[in-house]
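To fix ideas, we quote verbatim one protein's residues and fold tokens.
>
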Amino acid sequence: MTTFPGFTLPTLPPVELSRWLLEVFQTRVQIHYKAPLPAHEGCLLVVSNHRSFLDAPALIWALHRPVHLVCHHYLAQVPGINELVRQLGGFHLGPGGQGWSRLFAEASCYLQSGSHVAIFPEGAQLITRESYPNQGAPFRRGFAHLALRSGIADLAVVPVAVVSRREASGPLVPLWFLSLFDNREPTFKRPGWHPYVLYEQVEIVVGRARRLTDSEVYRYRHGEAARVTTSLAEEMQKAARQLTLDSQGSW
């Protein structure tokens, strides 16, 4: 067990640990699937919006299966938090966002072994600054490169929307403090505070899986990487936004 101020982190499988975290923070979760996930699918690449550290356990609980999550480097450097990230199945970029090649290789290994991988393409754009419920940010293209380099034929990419229905938020720590754990991250050189967002009621809307095509993989490998990844990032961003707009919101 790992001890945090106020509570002790139990040693549990990722799905059960996610449920425990949601109970600790008294987060009520509703889950809606727009379509069944591919039956007997060996692996999925899940992409989701991101405003709260509770996005990770809420996503794992919604999918109800272990998922390897791409995390920010500094999370693996903070004592206690690093153990939480490890138990939830997280793996991370290098300091300052370096090390994409290594991360692509690690993610590909997970996918090829039949494990699911999840990534938050908005990165730290919203989680490190004050934002309002269901605010979106542009999806960065890293996940698209990951998908197209995975070597998985017809890889299923699944958009997910985390829809906040009620939350508490406020300042948590000065951004400069986080530079103690990752001094290459430009975000941590800004003035201001890293906020916290605690969902009280949240809806997880899982969209329809979208498969990569042979044409996309071919074009990616033959001089059109920027165009293909930009198109896929924009498509998944629009899908996640539409899921947010279509959410049921009934409790």
